[in-house]
């Protein structure tokens, strides 16, 4: 893929995002034509159309924010670990959120809904904290112990999750709708609940992005250039965790968004993280909204969960990238 000037890539992906937003509002179990959209603009729509538009606006806003957060989180994790297969679940975000939801369902009578955020978000943050403490032995600057700790904690938590859902059918019935990942029932209340974590994550990501360019040269070179490697790595992990935890808490685990988008971004603009961040935010939002539109129209009048679509789109892309030699750190 030919690389573009960063500003041109940002303009193109912004246009794609705009089209995805319009499609997300116009398409679904009931299509809304241009005349209907014009009625909305003029404030003359009927009550049913107004309710449909309001629901789709909330769904579009949440989908765009979640897609952007997952893409940026994946970019940060791949950058800080220099691992081309890095994604938000690498540090235990997904398993921590899932384990928290299962625990709340089994022991507190939790039944899902918008309140999932208040259970999944602290679960994800706690899991990453444990991974970080276990994977950062004194005097070590390698990210390998961190990745191994993430794999171990994720394996333990997933074993716990499987044990709970196999022995408690009621837990499985509630958990299975959340674990696939869906934007159905999206609301501004859910978006507001995760907004503080996501905003802080984006701010921290913007702060650490220039330092990731230096870190890509190696720890020794980065240290020689005056970069506080340990602080940079910890701040980057915190930013990635906040973004991934907030997104996962809002809609459930979504596969391949955080893994695939960073590779697409690097193919477009190269390795400068200062440009990767804004383009990843926009492209991640567009990808998730496009997947959600496809999930709504492919089995109309029913709809698939968007997590199914992102997996189907992301898995072939990853295989193609590996075969073509495009997977780079």
Automatic annotation (TrEMBL):
Q: List the CDD domains.
A: TM_ABC_iron-siderophores_like
Q: Which UniProt keywords apply?
A: Cell membrane, Membrane, Transmembrane, Transmembrane helix, Transport
Question: Pfam families this protein is in?
Answer: FecCD (PF01032)
Q: Tell me one GO molecular function of this protein.
A: transmembrane transporter activity
Q: Which Gene3D superfamilies does this entry report, sorted A to Z?
A: ABC transporter involved in vitamin B12 uptake, BtuC
Q: In its keyword annotation, does this UniProt entry include Methyltransferase?
A: no
Membrane topology of the entry: Multi-pass membrane protein
Q: Can you supply one Gene Ontology CC term for this chain's record?
A: plasma membrane
Give GO BP annotations, semicolon-separated. siderophore-iron import into cell
Q: Where are the transmembrane segments?
A: 58-77, 89-110, 116-134, 146-166, 186-209, 246-265, 277-298, 304-322
InterPro entries the record matches: ABC_BtuC-like (IPR037294), ABC_transptr_permease_BtuC (IPR000522)
Q: Does Transmembrane helix appear among the keywords?
A: yes
The source's domain of life comes to Bacteria
**Subcellular locations according to the entry:** Cell membrane
Q: Which family does it belong to?
A: Belongs to the binding-protein-dependent transport system permease family. FecCD subfamily.
Record protein name field: Iron ABC transporter permease
Q: Which source organism? A: Brachybacterium alimentarium
> What lineage is on file?
Bacteria, Bacillati, Actinomycetota, Actinomycetes, Micrococcales
């Amino acid at each position: 893929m030919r690389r573009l000037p960063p500003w041109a890539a940002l303009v193109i992906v912004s246009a794609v995002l705009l089209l995805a937003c319009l499609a997300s509002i116009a398409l679904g179990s009931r299509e809304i034509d241009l005349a209907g959209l014009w009625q909305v603009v003029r404030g003359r729509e009927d009550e049913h159309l107004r309710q449909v538009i309001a629901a789709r606006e909330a769904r579009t806003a949440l989908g765009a924010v979640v897609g952007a957060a997952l893409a940026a989180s994946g970019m940060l994790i791949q950058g800080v670990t220099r691992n081309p297969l890095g994604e938000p679940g690498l540090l235990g975000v997904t398993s921590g959120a899932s384990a928290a939801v299962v625990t709340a369902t089994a022991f507190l009578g939790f039944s899902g809904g918008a309140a999932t955020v208040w259970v999944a978000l602290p679960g994800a943050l706690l899991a990453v904290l444990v991974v970080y403490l276990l994977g950062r032995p004194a005097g070590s600057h390698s990210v390998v112990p961190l990745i191994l700790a993430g794999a171990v904690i994720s394996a333990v938590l997933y074993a716990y999750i499987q044990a709970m859902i196999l022995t408690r059918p009621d837990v499985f019935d509630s958990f299975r709708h959340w674990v696939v990942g869906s934007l159905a029932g999206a609301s501004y209340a859910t978006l507001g609940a995760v907004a503080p974590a996501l905003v802080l994550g984006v701010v921290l990501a913007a702060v650490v992005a220039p330092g990731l360019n230096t870190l890509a040269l190696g720890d020794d070179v980065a240290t020689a250039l005056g970069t506080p490697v340990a602080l940079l790595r910890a701040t980057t992990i915190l930013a990635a965790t906040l973004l991934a935890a907030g997104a996962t808490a809002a809609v459930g685990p979504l596969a391949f968004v955080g893994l695939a988008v960073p590779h697409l971004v690097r193919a477009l603009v190269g390795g400068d993280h200062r440009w990767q961040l804004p383009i990843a935010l926009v492209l991640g939002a567009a990808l998730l909204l496009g997947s959600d539109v496809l999930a709504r129209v492919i089995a109309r009048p029913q709809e698939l969960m968007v997590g199914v679509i992102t997996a189907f789109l992301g898995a072939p892309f990853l295989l193609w990238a590996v075969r073509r030699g495009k997977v780079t750190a």
